[in-house]
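hiii, so i know i said id send this last week but things got crazy w the move. better late than never?? heres the sequnce for the chain we talked about at the cafe, plus the structure i predicted for it. fair warning i was half asleep when i ran it
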Amino acid sequence: MRVPDPVPSTSERSKWDVLAAPRDPILAIHQAYQQDPSPLAVNVSVGAYRDAGGNVHEFRAVRDARLSIAASSTYDHAYLPISGLEHLASQSARLIYGDDVFESGRIACLHTVSGSCALRLALSLASRVLGAEEAHVSLPAWPNHVQMVPMEALKLARYRYYDYDRHAVDIDGMLADLGKAKRGDVVLLQACAHNPSGADLKEREWRRVADVVQQRRLVPVFDMAYQGLASGDMEEDVCAVRTFVRKGINVIVAQSFSKNLGLYNSRVGTVSVCVADKVPGRDTATNLLSQLSWLARGMYSSPPAHGALIAAKVMGDDTLRAKWLLEIKEVVGRIGKMRERLRDELERRKVAGHWKHITQTKGMFVLLGLTYSQVERMRVLHHIYLTGNSRINIAGLNENNVAQVAEAIAEVVQNSKTPEQGC
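okay and structure toks below
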């Protein structure tokens, strides 16, 4: 005789009756764009570089490396070790810290599943190994920064970063807020091409931030998602990290190659730690690498190889590297031209507001200063998709759509509420 299945209790059923998780705001906008049948639809929300034709860009050096690897008789699908591809890690560390610091033996660098896992590992190291209890994130910030912090058992705090009235970094507010942080707290910093504002600190301002970090004994975690794409120069864009290293501050850096190599779905990144001094009789860098590897084992175990092989080949081959660095300058040049074109189109239409910051900020993003209702009007009436805080991806503009976007901005500013601060 068949025994009846037990009936779950009410309390047991209620455990599984969960609410839907919040949708990622940026990916939700991208999905809405994909479902828009209008031929006029323009997507300037997702943080990916598009070429002048509006297509996902493949760097010439990446294509050459990809084809070379595919033709290799030694290519296989074996697991990488937990620490990933060593050649990629060493090339990444040299790119961030320079050859002299790399050769000093003070760096632990682990190949990760792009920048997001690099950040999770950085925060996990700070929380679980270094004993941090709170992490300070810029206001505004990339939404994933805010989401990741509590996932690593860290309390979230915010520091002022962007002055919406001046459309520039609020350096005094930033320093005041970080000056109240507790010893051992994490401060999450974007090294260049700040997302979402595009407003970066000058070198002298980074020195002031480094002074506060050093005085308060904070743990700086740098998010390096856009090296090369702020100024067009790899060395200039790493100024913030090297300023801290020169002052003898231990740093953690999460590096992504999604944007500056266009390896979005290959998920290529690194997390590295640079310590100021070697401890006599102890290999601190090796110990830190073992801690990162231990954390990675429980998170994803082994990173993917294909994109890492491409990135390592581009950076390690003199010809491919030169081709890549030249194309980075071309990419930044096109973004700069689109910044100028958008500003010119807005000023020519005499759109109310101040638009100088469009050409004064760096990287792929800028905050337009529109209200949420104006952003919604852009989507509904004009089929133009940007994030709710009016962040626009300049790399999504081209000669075929920049005037259309400017005309839409002009219409919503004229026919709806006065622009207000985003968040």
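btw The chain has a mean pLDDT of 94. thought thatd interest u
miss u guys!!
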